[in-house]
Every structure is written in structure tokens, then in C-alpha cells.
Amino acid sequence: MFIKKEVERLTIDLSWKSSRLEGNTYSLFDTEILIKERIEAKGHQKEEAIMILNHKNAIDYIFEQKKEFKKSDLFHVKKIHELLTRGLNVRSGVRNIPVRIVGTRYAPLSGKTKIVKMMDSAMSKINSLDEPFLKSLAAALMISYIQPFEDGNKRTARIMANAVLLAHGICPISYRSVDETDYKKAVVLFYEQNSARFFRELFVDQFKFAVNNYF
Q1: Nearest to 11, CA basis, from 189, 204, 175
Q2: Is 147 exposed, middle or buried (0-12, 13-18, 19+ CB in 10 A)?
Q3: Which of 44, 62, 71, 105 lies at a CB distance of 3.0 to 4.6 Å from 163, suitable for a disulfide?
Q4: Distance between the two ends of the chain, CA-based, in angstroms?
């Protein structure tokens, strides 16, 4: 019973903060009501509720199928993306159009064939790592960097990174206490300079937060 309650609490926190990082305006309290009682907050767009509930479904999936994520592959990344973007007018599958990212001069790779090849290479590299934390960190960064989908890439990266942690019996992270500006700066630093230092520090801090606050 205790574990179930802690999983629910982490699910609420992660669904809220991951959505918040994408511009969702739901409060943590409103997110809890939405997830527990399916009551949407007044004064918010329908899509915001869908985004949060999609997170809940994706998190449920990685908890239920955690053994599947011992090895990362594009199939699982696409499944998580599909769960996160369902009902949000986002095309599923690897994109075949260019994308640009607000706030950075970095331009992700274009061309579906090239993207698939790069994702397969990234997943292979992740699988070759021995340390679960490095696997998770690499998943968070590389999916965000490659931007394999038209939208929902960073959401997918965060949930995939947690799936890797769960697969290795490690507590996932909720990002609940992360500063949103710091998170965005850390990702942009990796985009533009391929420096993981700032993101790694943020990642470690959030893991420490998770260990001290869940389970």
C-alpha cells in the first residue's frame, strides 16, 4: 500500500512538472485533482488536461513494463511518444519534416532515414554503457538532441530516462524542484556546445531529491 501511494505521488509530481516545462499552466494541486478525480481545472485549455493525463498513462506504462527497458530501442521511444502526445494533434512516428527549437540556433538533423539511423546509433551507444545513471542521462540528452518527432521530444526524453532507471531497480526522478529556466539552459548548452556538465549536475540534484522524497 505504501509503495502504491508513493508511486501515485511521484506520478502526480512528474506529470505536473514535465508538463510545466512545456508551458502547461496547471498547478500541482489542480494536477492532483485531475489525476485522482478526473476533474479538469477551470480556466485552462482542454489540451493542458490531456497533456497531464497522457503523462500519467506513459508513467503507468513504464512502471508496468519496466523490464522491457533494460535495453533501449526506437520502438520503445516511439511508444512512449505516442502515449505522451495522444489527442494533442501531434503526428506519431519519426518526423519527415525539419524542426526548429525556440531559444537556440541549433538545428536538429533532417530527413527521416537519417534520423532513424542516428536514433538507432544513439540507442546502441546507450545500451553499451554499464552504468544505469549514465544510460538514463544519455537517454534524456540524446532524445532531446536528435528531436526524432515533430513535437513532444523533451517529454519523451524525460520519461524514457526514467524508464531506464526503473528497469535497473532505481528510483525515477520527478523534476519537481528543478528550476525551469535552469533546465532549459542546461538543454540548450548541450544543443549548442555538446556540454552535458550543467544538465548532469541538474540530473544528479533531482535524483537526490527523489531519493529523499519518495519511497
Answers
A1: 175
A2: buried
A3: 62
A4: 11
C-alpha distances (whole Å) from 105 to each of 82, 96, 115, 143 are 27, 20, 19, 18
Q: Tell me if residue 168 falls in helix, strand or coil.
A: coil
Residue 125 CA to residue 119 CA, distance in Å, equals 10
CB 26 within 8 A of CB 44: yes
2-213 CATH, one of 3.30.300.30, 3.60.10.10, 2.30.22.10, 1.10.3290.10? 1.10.3290.10
64 — pLDDT class (breaks 50, 70, 90): very high
Nearest residue to 197 via CA among 186, 185, 210, 209: 186
CA distance readout (Å), 77 to 5, 17, 147: 27, 20, 11
Please state, rounded to an integer, the average pLDDT across all residues of the chain: 96
| Whether pLDDT at 62 is above 90 | yes
pLDDT in tens, 168-191: 999 999 999 999 999 999 999 999
Q: Give 129's Cβ-side CA count (13 Å radius).
A: 18
